Amino acid sequence: MKDICFEIDDQKYDSQTQKPKGDNIFFRCLKCRTILPSNPEFPVRCECRNITLDPEMFKIGVNEYKNFSVIRLKT
After folding, report:
1. Using CB atoms within 10 A as the burial measure, which of 22, 48, 65, 68 is most buried?
2. What are phi and psi of 60, to 5 degrees?
3. What distance lies between CA 25 and its chain's CA centroid?
4. Strand pairing partners for 16?
5. N- to C-terminal Cα separation, the chain
6. What's the alpha-carbon Rg for the chain, to the nearest Å?
7. Strand boundaries in 10-67, DSSP class E
8. pLDDT at 73
């Protein structure tokens, strides 16, 4: 079994900043530690509802950007 490794994107994001998207990019809630894919097939949200993703509307909602980070899957 192979370990999964991520690298943290150090860029600071806010409501005006475009978030990256792709098969190897994930959003992490630092509050509840949930990791969400950046391009889900259906609407998803983290456990504490800080991050919500709606792929049908191409929207991401973040309540507290201080508890939001982008991580990339290392290949």
Report:
1. 68
2. -125, 135
3. 7
4. none
5. 15
6. 12
7. 25-29, 35-37, 44-45, 51-54, 59-62
8. 87
Say how far apart CA 47 and CA 50 lie, in whole Å. Answer: 8
Domain ranges of the chain: 6-73
Using the CB atoms, write b or e for 9-22: b if 16+ within 10 Å.
beeebeeeeeeeee
Locate all alpha helices (DSSP H) within the chain, ordered by sequence. none
In order of 2, 32, 37, the CA distances from 50 in angstroms are 30, 9, 15
Q: Which residue stretches of the chain have pLDDT < 70?
A: 1-2
Residue 73, Ramachandran bin (φ over 0: left; ψ between -120 and 50: alpha; else beta) = beta
